Amino acid sequence: MEPQFSDQPGGFVGKPLVRVEGREKVTGKAKYSAEFALPGLTYGVIATSPIAKGKIQSIDTTAAARELGVIAVLTHQNLPKLAKTPNDAAGKKDTGAPMGFLPLTGDEIFYAAQPVALVVADTLEHATHAATLVKVNYAPQKPIADFHDPKAELFDPEKVQDGKQKGHTKRGEPQAAFASSAIQLTATYTHPVYNHNPMEPGSTTAHWEAPDRLTVYESTQGVTRTQSSLAAMTGMPREQIRVITKYLGGGFGCKGAMWPHTILTVQAAKAVGRPVKLMLTRPQMFTSMGHREDQSQVMKLGASADGKITSLIHTKQSTTSPWDNYAEPNSKIVDLLYASPSFESSYELARANVMTSTFMRAPGEAPGSFAIECSMDDLAARLGVDPIEIRLRNYADHDYGTGQQWSSKSLKQCYARGAELFGWSKRNPKAGATRDGRYLVGMGMASASYPVHNSQGTARARLYADGHAVVQAGATDLGTGTYTVMTQVAADSLGLPIEKVRFELGDTQLPTAPNSGGSVAAGTVSSSVYLACQDVWQKLIKAAVIDKKSPLYRAKPEDVAVEKGRLFLKKDPKKGEPFGELMKRGEITDIEGMAQGKYGSGYEDAAAAKNADATEKDQAGHHSMHSFGAHFCEVRVDMDLGTIRVSKWVSVIGAGRILNAQTARSQIIGGAIFGIGSALMEETIRDPHYSRYTNADLAGYHVPVNADIPNMTVEFVEEHDPYINAMGVKGIGEIAMVGVAAAVANAVFHATGKRLRDLPLTPDKVMMAGLPS
Amino acid sequence: MNNFSYTQAASTKEAATAAQGDKNAAFISGGTSLIDLMKSNIEQHSLLVDLNKLSLLGIENAATGLRIGALERMSDVGENPQVVQNYPVISQALLASASPQLRNMASMGGNLLQRTRCGYFRDTAFPCNKRVPGSGCPAQDGDNRTLAILGGSESCIATHASDLCVALVALDTKLTIENAKGQSRSVLLSDFYKLPGKTPHLENQLQPGDIITAINVPAAAHARKSHYLKVRDRASYAYALVSAAVGLDVQGGTIRSARVALGGVGTVPWRVPAVEKALVGKAPTEENFRAAAALAVRDAAPKEHNKFKVELAQRTIVRALLEVMA
Ligand SMILES: Cc1cc2nc3c(=O)[nH]c(=O)nc-3n(C[C@H](O)[C@H](O)[C@H](O)COP(=O)(O)OP(=O)(O)OC[C@H]3O[C@@H](n4cnc5c(N)ncnc54)[C@H](O)[C@@H]3O)c2cc1C
Ligand code: SF4
What we know:
The complex is a heterodimer of chains A (773) and B (326). Chain A has 20 helices and 32 strands. Chain A has 773 residues and is α+β, with helices and mostly antiparallel strands. Helix content of chain B is 29%, strand content 20%. In chain B, strands 4-5-8-6-7 form a 5-stranded antiparallel sheet. In chain B, strands 9-10-11-12 form a 4-stranded antiparallel sheet, sandwiched between helices. A 3-stranded parallel sheet of chain B has the order 1-3-2, with helices on one face. In chain B, helix 5 (88-95) packs antiparallel against helix 8 (164-170) and helix 12 runs antiparallel to helix 13. The longest helix of chain B is centred in the last third of the chain and has 18 residues, at 308-325. At the A-B interface, helix 4 and helix 20 of A face helix 13 of B. The structure holds flavin-adenine dinucleotide (FAD) and iron/sulfur cluster (SF4). Flavin-adenine dinucleotide (FAD) binds next to strand 2, helix 2, helix 6, helix 7 and strand 8 of chain B.
């Protein structure tokens, strides 16, 4: 196993350091992807289809082309051809595209707002206007809107999430166990389409610097993945394509892969021979970069009379696109959370005229936890047992799904500490019994968990003799603090003050880092940064032991240690020297270290992970690796009007080492707010006849505002997990939202005595549920 | 957005004349509604006549009533101490609208003329009788959760979105309107808006060139004891699912006069005289409020997704009345 980071006395790791790039951001100096002013820059705007299904009969671009400033009007008829498209199975695999269809490759319309033309002009205004003048004649057909549509046909996909997850899993004899259980709970949980809605919409600026050199400024969670997709689609070698993302205004999964607008912009730039910038509009964000699919889950929970789970059976129905079998893998968390001797899951999909859905913060874990955590609450209520107690009775002391031991798990501490911070003991065990004037007050909680996915990445550290360092990894900072935490890790690893370290990211010319998604970035990149710094020390130690003038001359390298930038003999710490002296004497201006950091199973057992099937990589190590946590929520429900306000929130999370107390807290409250939004108000509404969204903007799609959110309390349980990576970091981006919707719904149940399972819990549903008065 | 020309008028007459000369002209005040509509190609105007240089200002509180210039900003009126004290329902309706940034920009006149938030109206890809007469109304059997249960027709069930108007219509507000000829007329706000009928694109009584110059609210005891309650999908920055503007004059335990209007349920700001009548002469008790509120929705014609408004409208009235008595 690799070396492990240990806390430095007076070190920066873990401290609530303010963002190192904060000043640049608030003064407008930070350059987001759409802010690179290239010479000769032009603007691209996409014209989209009003209909959701049909055929383009003709396109008349004359009016648009005639408009002032218009340089080109590109359609499927005149766009430069690609080496590969994702339109067939092999192409989809090779291009890594999330959707098995690229618009502007033919005359068929499959979903509403599908791109049909791309106008390039000298200004954004000219392009925007001209795009409205593209006249398209359609032969419309009746679309299918979703899996509820009478014409929709449900099928068994066998694998979901693009073949990455098994559709069916079975352990033990769940059906028989359920049938013979003393307590049998069956409930259906539903939610609508959700959209990620990052603050920064997707954007691409494509610049062909030469016919064989392409630079793309992209709003993406992974420059390397975008580079791979572009290489496959353009047929160019990867090294001729550079992708840059210096700052990102959020992603939440929708920027995890390369969506059509990116390659269309690249093609447009080729066609016009000038750089083209394209930024999706807010309405286009609802139909360009995926969404969380609308879905219905049936959760069956069998338990013994004393509340011990005997059987869990989970089935999910959801809508997918005409080409792909995408469904979030909800069942994994259902299988994982509790000590159930039997388990079964299956998925059903129906094709409809929608684009392909995609990962959205805690894909699978978020909706799956809603189902299992509400069902656990039902079980507690049925038995008259405290919700925490019912979870403790079913506490999984190992992973029942894989049979593995946990690498670490602090869930019990999370329950206990959360309950204490929240004041859980004041909760009246009876539902619907706590009032404050015309408000029904309720307290609910839920467990959270998120896996440590297998991942790896590389970093480079260059230490200069004058005592500063530049550390690099082609990672992405989604806005969550990657710049800051990596600077902290590098500063501690090199024994330098924060100001002496610059961390660079977001460029394919830097060492390859994984996509920032699946909560892997913090753990993978920090480990590779730490190891790259160790590599620097190893090189310097080697330089010292052959330097006659060094006090360490002729020492064995393994006998030398480094602390705060000073190399010394382990046995005789007085013998040694600071790195600066060594370097200056040897005329070493700088020295570079490089290392690969591994995260998850690949760290614990690199060989096993390497040879594992894609769907089993996460389990290839010897331990089951997950972060755990608990959320506690208090709501006030207006008994007349049905409005719900969250009035108190506590999250306690055990996620390994916490790199920065402040950015970590921000992650957790951000994720919890994301979850509260999904629980109470977020919803993209698709018209059942037109299969087109009716609220595709931020006036119609409600995300929480400040007034919806109380002061939130966040704590982390200290964990030292030696199995997951060199830094012992588990990642917190997604666990923050897992279980949140359930905690809210459980609080609403406790407040009202009514169990609501159809998200979002808007006032109409609450009021119509018939509240006590 | 289409190309358009822009002119700034120095007087009401000049503005009215400029607008009258171009049938696709529009006035612009704060622009918070108009520019959105133009950007989404819902409205196409060839000329914008900017009213902001006109002196349609002033928040004058007299014994007879309140006069508000049409160009006063929502935030200034909402926070005006006289309005807060004597017309709380107006202040509350304003401050429950939009966001602080929008209220700082948006004018009172413009607020009265904002257009519906019906999702089909707001997206030109859909048919919509209000936007393109005769094209159809997909809301009838589509996404109608936020739409009207009162005053609708087969052609249109779009809700009037303004909060301010609900308060104003409750208080017998009159608008002062001037035209290109320099004539001024006074119109009762409750007569100003048109029900959709077969012509949902015709929304009010303005003629080309007509400018709203002032809003006049008569003083009354029920205006001083008034309240606005807005029920919405999130705590702030959302349109009303249902709202109620209420005012009561209670003397010696008896309601002498009452004003009740609803928002979010009608195709126009929805005054409910039957409820008011039922309240007058009664004691201000929850029971009486409930009985009266039931009359508000006698003619309700809900659709699949907005049935809840029939019940919610009544409860909102009752709660607003309880709160005004509190
Ligand atoms: C995101 C968002 C949320 C909102 N939320 C709410 C809400 O919760 N509640 C609410 O009530 N409103 C809400 N609004 C609407 C907002 O209050 C209106 O946009 C605003 O009041 C319009 O005023 P304005 O001065 O900007 O009008 P403009 O946009 O300038 O004009 C609107 C219309 O009125 C006409 N006009 C303007 N002044 C006059 C005049 N004096 N005489 C004749 N015609 C005139 C214009 O020609 C135009 O047709 C919201 C708006 C937005 C964008
Ligand atoms: S309700 Fe009115 S505004 Fe909405 S679609 Fe129908 S006609 Fe258009």
